[in-house]
Known about the structure:
This protein is mainly α. It has helices spanning 2-11, 16-42, 52-74, 78-84, 92-108. The protein contains 5 helices and no strands.
Amino acid sequence: MKSIFLFNAFQGSNTPDVKSIIDGLKKEVLLFISSVVVVFQKRGEISRNVSPEVASPFIFQAQLGIYEYLSVFKGINFKETVQSGYLFPVSEIEIMEVVDEMLVIIESGLKKQQYD
């Protein structure tokens, strides 16, 4: 998964050669996310008032935020996980609970809702 690779790369070296590779991969990921946003806009699930190009870095950063949360609060070392090929030490259910909560934040923001 490219986003896990990018997360690991962000944690590591920032030499000029590595930075150019990371920037190229990041652009590729952002273009892919933009295309996914367009698909969801056509389905009516994302507002057409949102620019796919503006939304894509936000969505990408949210995904990196999920990795950061899992790293800090669940003790997952993604570099070791990818290198060893073993699965995450937390269940898919636990990961999806974090993803669902992040989606609530994306959809509703952090502002207290009237029904809270």
